[in-house]
Design brief:
This protein is of the alpha/beta class and 872 residues long. Helices cover 63% and strands 8% of the residues. The chain contains 31 helices and twelve strands. Strands 5-9-10-3-11-12 form a six-stranded mixed sheet, with helices on both faces. A three-stranded antiparallel sheet has the order 2-1-4, with helices on one face. A hairpin with a 2-residue loop joins strand 7 (619-625) and strand 8. It is elongated and about 200 Å long. The two termini are 47 Å apart.
Amino acid sequence: MNYFIRKFINENIKEENEDTYNLLLTFCIKKFDSEKRISEYIIDDLSRIFNEYFEKDISMPFDKIKQSIVDFKNSDETHLKLENRFGCEYIRYIQISNFKGFQSSIKGDLGTRINFHNKKNIFYGANGSGKTSFCEALEYKLTGSIKEAKRRGIREKEYFERKDKGVERIEIGLKDEQLILDKLTEFEISEFNKCFIEKNRINEFALLRGHKETAVKPTDVTARLLGFEVFDDFKSKFVQPTSFKSRVEKSKVYDSYYKLKDLKIKNESREEDYKSITLEIKNFHQNTLKEEALDLSIWCLNAAKEKLKRYELIEYKKDDVKKWLWHLLLNGKRLNRINSLISTQATKLDFKSLYTTIISIGDKINRNTCPACKTPIEFVTVNPFENAEKELNELKELNYIQLSKDKLIDKLLNDFWTKLNDFIYNYKTLKRINLGLQNEMFESIEKRIASSTTFADKLSVLLSLNEYADDELKKYLERYSIEFTKSKRIDNLNLKINDIIKDKQSQLDIYTDNRTRFRHSKEIQKNLFEDIYAFKKSSKILNKKILQEKAFAKFIDELIVNYNSLISNIDSYLLKEQSELITQIKGRILGYYKEINKGDSENEIIQEIEFNQQNDKTYSIDLKRNDGWKKASVILSEGHVRSLGLSIILSIAESANLPFIVFDDVVNAIDSEHRANIIDMMFANKFLKKTQLIVTTHDRLFWERFCNTYSSRVNKRELSSISFCFKYQNQGIIYVPYQISFEEKIKEALSYSDIRQALVYLRIWFETICFNYCKTTEKTITGHFSQDNSEKPTHLVVSLTKVYNEIITPSFSSSISLKVVQEKLNWKFLNQEHHSFDENIFNVTHSTTSSEIEDIFEAVKNFEQEVYESIE
């Protein structure tokens, strides 16, 4: 975890805070280094929090959170005590292998080792030569991360790993040998982060509005430059409060509340049903005796009705009986005729011949021969087929007669015999009513019916009925009619009994239905009771769960409030830290800016600088010039904005009293003159003068000027230990120490008699000495407007000749060396156009000998020493 984030959490996490606020901070502690947003972990973890805490105890005893606070506070004591105890002095060396362009292809090779000077180091190389790889190796070893990898959204291992060559190895030797790089504190890492000034960081600030290619938002620009980009990264791990609220509120649980609500509605209905059915069961018990009385009454009435049935008569009319007897006689005669006809037909049939013929005829008949004797059909006496057809026709007619007989017998038995039995039954009933109606004729018939078992017996009885006298039957029927009329009263009584039974049965049916309902109601009552009991049991559980859910909903509401507070506190803390830092470094920023922009016109000079807080919780940088206060983004050119960004970073470095600073190609889009000022500042500024500088550049002029300034101001004999060139070859990045001083270049040119090249270097060398003197001593000179310069931003151009004549000559009037230079260097030929610092341009032709060049060389060298002594 970053030191500043840890410091923020340490200041905010307290036992007296609401649990939800401390919960958010514990997520910050545990999930700070995760790739996913912290807010996503919080949202995803809510279900676990509910189950772990609220399902068990609604009092929310976040014991784990409280223990996390104690653990964090205890661990933080060590980290926070190390504040302002950055013990590093400077870097002695770095050894790199298998990191980006740095290879180690030979077994036992530990990689490229680069020794550093304790004050100034410069590395020159074209694009792709390995400058940034070198700086990022330093950054990765000292901070554990690479900003550029993060800026590009690439995992660090993927960014630098050389899978084909093995594991990377970076070793750094520090002056402070007690500082163990593998066990750095967060404070030390945060301080090491300040030591690196990358061109992309300056590029982002130069835009002042962020840039889509670097994924930097406008709100991030100043924070990144001030070294607080970790807070922007930290804030990016949280969604906006409105989004957090909408998503977290979905986690609220109301299941038990709605479930209990539904159960209550159902239970209210159950209780009503239970009351109703209990009352119904109570009423049933009261009606049980009534049901039993009705049942007995119906039984008695049915018994009486059964007794009355014995006296029920069927009405017989005299004409109907006569007609019935006449039909009986008719059918008897018909039966006799059928029997006679059957006997006659049967005698006509030759059954033996029919039987033989039928037997002999099979399924497959050959009609050409006799089926019995196989004699050809034309020779037989009687044709068997014709004889069979004749017999079959006779048999068919007999069959029809037999069927008629069967139907007649069936009618006699089922119709006449049944009616006779009914008649005798009514006779017996009549005897029970009145014994005086006993009749010998019917007594005889009754006896014969009882003894008749066969059809012949029954037929004999039926046919004998016609033998009885009509007068006797007539008398009986008349008396029977009288008694039948009397028996109608029994029918009326039966009807009344039936009505009473029907009424009582209706009442009994109600009780019977009630009994069925009673059994069903008892079952329903039992089920309702069990459901009501289960509801009461469930409601206790659900009421507890509702309390848990309410507590969780309250927890969610508190979480939302404290989430807003946390985001607000992060912003406030960031602004407070930035404000404190800005207050501390504001004066230094203006000082560095003026050093870098020495020589600007009076209208461009910045008098004051202010950082003003905006509504979006960022800062705008306002500058005061002769024409008043203006926004930096409005009045500054890109080069000046870059100068301002560099000034801010250097002010932070000085405020932190950093032991070393790594400049990774930071002079992009800054013109030659201001680059010269930056070099001069590196050697003249009190802080930078004592600080170890590690500078990379692709600008050859910047490299040469830096080396020559070192040569003239520090020690020209040490150039080989501070100046290096990077180059990328098949074997990877290599570097070589390189003497870049004008003195060595001139000697090299003279070694192969390149007088023209030696003269060009002499001019550049001499002009550099003169300009350094003017800048260091802050000399002033008047200028004039000209038509040629009217299109240039400053409108004024300082003439080299005027610098020499009005500043250098009067200041060193007694210098013999200067006189030699004036006589032999012929500076009148030098002007801004020719002075391009390019070794391949030879605009002026001189007829100067090698010996004269050597004289000029010695004179310039001596004059440089005089100037240096004068400045000191």
